[in-house]
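Prompt: Have a read of the protein record below and flag anything odd:
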Amino acid sequence: MDLLRFATAGSVDDGKSTLIGRLLLDSKAIFEDQLEAVEATSEAKGYDYTDLALLTDGLRSEREQGITIDVAYRYFATPTRKFIIADTPGHVQYTRNMVTGASTADLGLVLVDARQGLTEQSRRHAVIISLLRVPHLVLAVNKMDLVEFDQAVFDKIHAEFTQFATKLNIPDLEVIPISALQGDNVVTRSENMPWYQGPTLMHHLEHVHVASDRDLIDARFPVQYVVRPKSDEFHDYRGYGGQIAGGVLKKGDEVVVLPSGMTSTIEGIDLFDQEIDQAFPPMSVTVRLADDVDVSRGDMIARVKNAPTPSQDIDAMICWMTSEPLRPKQKLAIKHTTRTGRALVKDIQYRLDVNTLHRDQETKELGLNEIGRIQLRTTVPLLCDPYSKNRTTGSFILIDEATGVTVGAGMINSSS
C-alpha cells in the first residue's frame, strides 16, 4: 500500500480536530478504551455528544481551551492506503507550526465553517499551502448541518474560493461539503445532501494520485551516513546510506559524487537485508559504488549528465519562526538535506502579505510568522534545485548558532 501524508488547516473552531476524530472513528482506527475515555470526558464537560476533537488535541492546554496549539500527527490505514495526518493550528500566531506540518504533505485539507464562509485565515492557509507547493488541495465546507444542508451556501463558498485559487499555484482542487460532527460525506455519503454528486472525503483521500507528484527524472541521493560494519563477515562492505530525494537510481548507473566531482558506477543497492535493482523517492537505501571514492555525510550522489550545480548564492522564500526579527547582515547556521554550513543574509527583497499577496518591498526585517523573499550567501556550496522542481533539495532550515533553535524554513527560488 502507498502512503498519503496530508495536513489539515483552517480558522479556529472550524472543526479540524473533530474531522480527524471522525476519520479515525469511522475508519475503525481507534481502540474501544480510547473512545470510552473521550466519551467520559465529553460527558464530564456537559456535552450531549461525543467530542471527537479530544482524540487529537492531546495537550492539556489544548483540551482546556478547545483549540489546537501544536502539530498533532495521527496514523491510520484503510484497505486501500496508509495515512499520516498533521493536524495543524488555526491561530495566526501558530503559522510556523502550520508550515512545519504542511511542508511534507502530499495534500492540504483546508476547512471552512459553512456559517462563516471564507475567512482571512482560510485564505492565509491556502496561500501557504500554495507556497509550499503541496500538489493537492481539498476545501472541506464543514458544519453543513448548521445551515440546514443548504446547497446555495455551499455553492457561494465554492465559487468564492475557486476564484481566489486562480491567483495561487494549486494544480488540483476538490471542494466537498461535510459535517464532521455527524459524519456526512466524511466516510459515508450523506443522505442530507442529495444535490452533491462528488466523492466523499475518505474516497478522495484514498484515490487521489500522488505517485507522479515526486521528481522521478533528476536523480538526487544526499548521503546521510557511511555504512562500514565492524564484523568479520562484512569487513569489505562500504555503502552510503540515505533517502532518495529525486529520480530513480539503478544498479550499473554511472554517477557523480558532489561536490568533489568524482565519478563511479552503482555496484549495488541494498534495502534492509536484501539487494534491489532500483530505488526511487522516498525510499531509504544503502548505495554501494564500484570504485573506492571519497564520500562522506553531506555529499550528494547524482547522475553524471544531470547533476545540480553547487551554489553559494541562494534566492529563497523564508518563513521566519522566532520573535527576534530577521535582518540583513545576520549570520545563521544553515541545514540543507544532509549538508550543514553557515549563511549570511545579504538582503530582504520583500515581505509577502499572505492575505492580499501584496509584496512590501520597503520592509527592513521579517517578524515572527512572517514570510518574505531573501538573498543568502553560504560558506559551503549547496547542492540544490528550485523548490518548484524538488521539495527536498529545494528546501532548507536556518538555525540560531547560539541556541541551536530552528528560526526559519526556506524554499529556494534559484541559485547561482
Summary: The CA atoms of residues 328 and 345 lie 5 Å apart. The first helix runs from residue 16 to 26.
